[in-house]
Amino acid sequence: MMSTTARRPLSVALASLLATGALALGTTGARADTLGSMEVAPATGTDTSGITLTTAGPCPEPATNLIVAVKGAGFPAEGQNVVSNSPISTYATAPDGGIAVPLTQTMRDYASTAGFTTLQGRYDFTLTCRAAFGSATYGEFTSPIWFTSDTTYRSTAPAAATTTALAAAPAGPVVQGTAVKLTATLAPAEAGGTVRFLDGTAQIGAPVAVAAGTASLTTSALAVGTHALKAEFTPADPAAYGSSASSALSFTVRIKPPAVVTPAKVTGTVRVGSTVTCAVAFGGATSVKYSWLRDTAVISGATARTRTLVAADHRHKTSCRAVGANSTGSTTSTSPALSVAAGPALRNGTRPSITGTARVGYRQTARPGTWTPAATSYSYVWKRDGRVIRGATRSTYHPTSADRRHQLTVTVTGKRAGYAWGYATSRPVRIG
Predict the structure, then answer these.
(1) CA 232 – CA 357 distance, rounded (Å)
(2) How far apart are CA 324 and CA 259, in angstroms?
(3) Closest C-alpha among 79, 39, 74 to residue 57
(4) Residue among 29, 101, 30 at smallest CA distance from 70
(5) Same domain, 221 and 250
(6) DSSP three-state, residue 368
(7) Spatial CB neighbours of 291, under 8 Å, sequence gap ≥ 6
(8) Of the residues 117, 171, 187, 275, which has the maximum number of CB atoms within 10 A of its CB?
(9) Percent of the chain with pLDDT over 70
């Protein structure tokens, strides 16, 4: 349907303009008088629809050409020409004298030319009546369209836009089974209708009526995991208010933190050289990490469930700390501290021996033998017929006349920090 907007006869309009000095033939000054509206056909369409604009009347003389531009989100602020400077005579005339201008491309094409992809909101077409040359213009016809989605438009103003915001209390993360209150806030607050609460695409409960701009729902049924919660508003009067949906609200539900079933405890023989174990049990833990302490200080690098006690632990207390963790958090259990005893006495493997010429005046040398664990130092006691020789405590000994025709032995003490001492005696040597 073409517009039937009333117009004065062209001659009367021109006479009036000339009388007031508003239009001077031959002037190059630009004008932007609004001459009327344009009909958009089809009235509803898509981003790929062919569109024809029909003005409510003809361009006033002396206009011979026209230009059509479009403005709106994505296009340059000054507008983008969709019909270049073209003679009016190339277009069909509507029954009421209007000019029917078919656009040669679609809105999707024009958006692509302007360098954007999303069509949204209001776009205004302006047809400017003008001369073929110069900058003189003789009025404009205008018409808007509204993209109600990225791909569909309408030529009548849509219902009042609404916005929906979603909040959750508590804000999360929460433990599974926690009661979570979802509240949708609608603007404008006077818009009536219902809100659907969604977990992804699944609806939570029944739609809730909006009251004073809000709608709320409480649920304890959210499963463990990350959820994308949304609120969708449906207006009671779609002609008055548009529908809207909130942004997705990321909401995490976690399993309960691990619980200590059996507290941490150090098991095994607590002495140097022994391997002890951190015994502990958690419920709901997906991993357990260990650390060991000497007195109250954490021992660097000791992170296994078991640990072999070393000399540095002797005369100190040892304990273990276990941390059970899952996706929610962690729980710590620390064992009682136990005193670390010395390790067992060093064991002699190869017996000590005496080397040298077994005669008075010749040096005798003690060989300590081998020990497990390895000794780090030794002490010596020389004996004559099993009795200690006073002062003979070196690794070497020079027999005297008192030793002639007697049996000489050496007792070696193997020593290592953190372990009890070990003792071993050589076979006797008869001194001549």
Answers:
(1) 106
(2) 8
(3) 39
(4) 101
(5) yes
(6) coil
(7) 298, 299, 302, 303, 320, 321, 323
(8) 187
(9) 93
Residue 49 corresponds to which tokens in the numbers above? Answer: 């629809």
Longest dimension (CA), the chain: 158
Q: Give yes or no for a contact between 181 and 218, defined as CB atoms under 8 angstroms apart.
A: yes
Give the Å distances, CA to CA, from 285 to 175, 276, 374, 421.
15, 23, 42, 45
Mean pLDDT, the chain, as a whole number?
Answer: 92
Specify if 423 maps to a domain: yes
State how beta strands 34-41 and 137-147 pair: parallel
**Cα–Cα distance, 29 to 39 (Å, whole number):** 28
Beta-carbon contacts of 92 under 8 Å, excluding residues fewer than 6 positions away, are 99, 100
User: How many domains is the chain partitioned into structurally?
Assistant: 4
Answer yes or no: are the C-beta atoms of 128 and 66 closer than 8 Å: yes
Q: Please tell me the predicted confidence (pLDDT) of residue 32.
A: 60
pTM score, two decimals? 0.47
Enclosing domain of residue 291: 259-339
Q: Is the dihedral of CA 283, 288, 290, 296 positive or negative?
A: negative
